[in-house]
Amino acid sequence: MDPILIVVIVAVLLLGLLGFVASTALRGRRGVELEPPSAKGKAGLDTPTRVPDDISDLDTLEAPPDVVPPSFRERIAKARAAVSGYLGSILSRTNLDQETWDELEEALIRADVGVETTTDLLTSVRAQVDDANITETAEMLEVLKAEMKQRMQGDRTLHLTKGDGISVWLFVGVNGVGKTTTIGKLSKREGDAGTKITLAAGDTFRAAAAEQLETWAERSNADFVRGEEGGDPASVIFDSIAKAKANGSSLVLADTAGRLHTKSNLMDELSKVRRVADKDPGDVSEVLLVMDATTGQNGMQQALQFTEAVDVTGVVLTKLDGSAKGGIVLAIHDRLGIPVKLVGLGEQIEDLIEFNPDEFVEAMFSE
Amino acid sequence: MFESLTDRFESIFSGIRGRGKLSEAEVDEVLKEIRLALLEADVNFTVVKNLQGRIRERCVGEELSGALNPEQQIVKIVNEELTESLGGESFTLSFNPKPPTVILMAGLQGSGKTTNSAKLARWAKSKGRNPMMIGCDLQRPAAVEQLRTLAAQLNVPVFSEPTTPVEVAADARQVAKNVGRDVIIVDTAGRLAIDEELMEEVRQISEVVQPDYTFLVVDAMTGQDAVTVAENFHATLELDGVILTKLDGDARGGAALSVKEVVGRPIAFASTGEKLEDFDIFHPDRLASRILGMGDMLTLIEKAEEAFEADEAEAAAEKLLEGKFTLDDFLDQMQQIKKMGPLGGLISMLPGVPKEVRDVEIEDKEINRIEAMIRSMTLQERAEPDIIDAQRRARIAQGSGTNPNDIDNLVKQFSQMQSMMKKMGLGQAGGGKSRKKKGKKGKKGRGGGRTTAKGGVKPQKFDIAELQRELGIPVEGEEDGGGDAGGGLALPR
Fold it and tell me: Are B191 and B229 spatial neighbours (Cβ–Cβ below 8 Å)?
């Protein structure tokens, strides 16, 4: 049997079938209230096979964190010392020639900024450089930095709901980016600042995800709500809002299971979680997309898909203390207008800090 | 956002079709697009540069054979270069004749080590081995618990103690011996490649377990940094291969290519889903197509070959080409397709499918609905859907628990598909008599000698090459050098 014939049949049948199924599926998606995705079916096989979200060393938390939180630049510079800065070497050139531009392009692409944003950025810088008759590399770099910083300006506040509703911060992202750890650190931080917090273990898929969050709840003295393993995440969030209301806590940090943005049923599930969390007295005031600094160009797709599903309000960039530069967030901010709000620079609790575009850009250029 | 390389070429080549050679300027234009495609797929900058050089060399002055148009020729070159870079051969894991075979898993945080330890254990088990897993990730709370949960599903033992990772590792061989296990999979904590302390720890673990294989677990979504990570891990551990995870997303996985190119170690396994069985030996040639956005036809073919009954498929194909394919046949073929696995997965392998469509999660429930609709039709209705009027529609809808609109849609889609097939089948061998023969020839000669269609005005209309072009797959050159446009699919031989 000639395999080609099979392929023809398959291709045609699939395509035909696809046209039909896709159109109905798309129609269904636009429906007002979707059926709750079948959590039962998923749970059996998927629960334990999910990739670990998270990697924190809880023991280290016991060390009293009375150290002064290191600055973004110090932290990042320490990490960067291990790898040579691509951009630093450009500084050694004095003349602004084509080669310098090429090197700059290379440096930005290597930092995962992406070709499109890099080209756009450099076109703009070139125009400015020409206008101002700049001939020195150092000067040009200042223009570039300014341009990059300017493109990353945005609202970085973590918003709380006004009035007496319960604020819900929803944490979403693909598998293994560090959602649970981020929530743990943030819970400790906000708790120390005097906010009464409830943690919602919305990751009902991954085995032991709830236990992990519970440990954080204990450490940060927060209330904790979990559901059954494999249960409906929306109902866990709903319960946690009710508990927050009853116990007088004003902020719910809601964990969700990691999911690839291409799985539309899981994304639908997430939309439902958000809708449920938004019901009185809950008010989703932040939806934070947690992203790993090693993420490449696929990060753009993640941002697009998650925004479409749950209207992301900010990015948390984790694991920036490695050798990855996390340049994709520049592209995301530039093209989608989603600001980075928090940065993870290590496993200690004080390593989750506010994002600072100036220092992020400077760090990119430091050796 | 991503477009396939073939799409990119479209604009460049539209003006220069039919020419025998590409000028250097044209080649440079093409190379720019190739570069863009590779960088967007997260192939490392240095690797892209090298590839570009090699591709350039082959493109400049390349005689473009008449049977192919230039873009196909170049896509073919690029594809070949990528495949070669990825390492032509699939990885083979040979179990140590003196058991146990020890496998060490290392990687960054969140890359999927624990899950893939379990997947590897399942794989080893499927090869008739008795694996056990060692939980050396004592850092992340509940990591060992997670490993145990997974292991329980597989009925595989886990060994771990709350001591230190190195101590646990040191006992691994003895424990395995005691419980009679011949494959040991050591799961370690995630660590940054630049964290000297933790890298030293994993080096010690490696020293005490003396692994036969050390795998680096790499997330398919990783960007440019993948190379740095791999180099550092390789310097510490001497990697044997890479396990590429989360390939079920839409990441192109260029990082894997970079790692192979820079570290010189193959991608051994790939993980393509959340289930434990979504894991297998990696096929380098298939990633090349993926990086280029050309779908994964080879896997599709393989799956098709497994699932389809040769005779049935051939009969169905003939009917298809004659335009005599009925809803009943469709139903039959759908059963076959179901054997190939979830439809969503199959569609993602098809090249040229728009992303929005590809990402629609298709549940088997949907297929069942379609089936129900067809089954609610009379045989006559299945053969001649045109006779379905409002009354029949209502009846079918009721019978299948759907609504009349759905029935209408199905019939419309089906007739569109049918006319598409008719068009393809048109012009081949005039009438119906030589069809059988043609089928056989197709097997051997791949279109060679098919030129003598009645009238002989046009080359074959039904032409796999045509379909391939439509689907964006490079068309392999004709072996027999036949002048007509018949091409063949690049099949693994």
Answer: no
Q: Give CA torsion, residues B321, B326, B327, B330, to 10 deg.
A: -40
- Cβ separation A16–B413 shorter than 8 A: yes
Q: Is the ipTM of this complex over 0.85?
A: no
Mean pLDDT score across all residues of chain A: 80
Structure tokens at B476: 């392999």
For A96-132, write each residue's pLDDT tens digit: 888 888 888 988 998 899 999 999 999 999 999 999 9
Q: Is the pLDDT of residue B134 over 90?
A: yes
Gap from A126 CA to chain B (nearest CA, Å): 20
In the predicted structure, residue A269 carries a pLDDT above the cut 80: yes
The model carries a pTM of: 0.72
Closest chain A C-alpha to B207 CA, distance in angstroms: 24
**CATH number of the domain at A72-151, out of 3.30.70.1400, 3.30.70.2330, 3.90.1150.10, 1.20.120.140?**
1.20.120.140
Instruction: Enumerate the residues of chain B whose CB falls inside 8 A of the CB of residue A115.
Output: 36, 39-40
Q: Which CATH class is domain B101-286?
A: alpha beta
Whether residue B112 and residue A176 make contact (CB cut-off 8 A), yes or no, is yes
Task: Write the CB contacts of A86 (distance below 8 Å, at least 6 apart in sequence).
Answer: A103, A106, A107, A110, A111
Q: Find the helix or strand (DSSP H, E) in which A361 lies.
A: helix A357-365
In terms of Cβ atoms closer than 10 Å to its own Cβ (0-12, 13-18, 19+), residue B63 is exposed
Q: How far is B3 from chain A (nearest CA, A)?
A: 13
Interface membership of B385 toward A (CB under 8 Å):
no
Helix (H, G, I), strand (E, B) or coil at A314: strand
DSSP per-residue string spanning A18-86: HHHHHHHHHHHHTSSSPPPP-HHHHHHHHGGGSPP-----GGGGGS---SPPPPHHHHHHHHHTTS--H
Output the pLDDT for position A172: 97
Cα–Cα distance measured from residue A175 to residue A302, given in angstroms and rounded to the nearest whole number: 11
Euclidean distance between CA atoms A122 and A107, whole angstroms? 12
Q: Flag whether pLDDT at A340 surpasses 50.
A: yes
Residue A343 C-alpha from the chain's centroid: 10
**Domain B5-86 has what CATH class?**
mainly alpha
Q: Which of A49, A47, A146 is nearest to A361 (CA)?
A: A146
CB contact under 8 A, A52 and B114: yes
A1 CB within 8 Å of a chain B CB: yes
What is the architecture, at CATH level 2, of domain A160-312? 3-Layer(aba) Sandwich (3.40)
Contacts of B190 in chain A (CB under 8 A): 52, 55
Task: Tell whether B359 is within 8 A of chain A (Cβ).
Answer: yes
